[in-house]
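Protein: Outer membrane protein beta-barrel domain-containing protein
Species: Candidatus Saccharicenans subterraneus
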Amino acid sequence: MKKVILAALVMGLLLGAISLGAQEKKVAMSLNLGAMTYVGSEGDSFSDFLFSLGAQVDWRLGSSFMLSPEVQVLTYRFHFDYVLVDPGLVLNYTSKSFFAGAGVILPILVGEGETWTGKLSPKLNIGYSGRHLVLAGYLITNAENLFKENLVGFTLGYKF
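Structure follows.
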């Protein structure tokens, strides 16, 4: 089931990239760089950062909403023995150049021939989308303990 979800998200990103030329105003793709850290009740808030490289497709659903499948690859201190892959899907409300939305991600840890899959986690985001620039801040939380154990981050992206 989890592999099916991951495959569907990858297919969505590929289909979005292919259809960019045909529907330039309704579909956009961005490549993003960012950083993420832990904020929560454990006391280690802001102690370490994960760095991310991501891709996102934005499908306009009318004038006010946008469906955004995405994938982030995260690394700790640029060590690539293990990487965290976060495919996700977010529904955003858009108002001119600003957006805010909610969705889910599925954390997948990959490294040294092993794969570990976590639980679906809620994601909230807010940001600005210009002609070619995308700035976003987000919060990923644990579905079982909402807003007690969080990952917060930001991304800076180039939109095609």
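Remarks: Confidence is low (pLDDT under 50) at residues 20-24.
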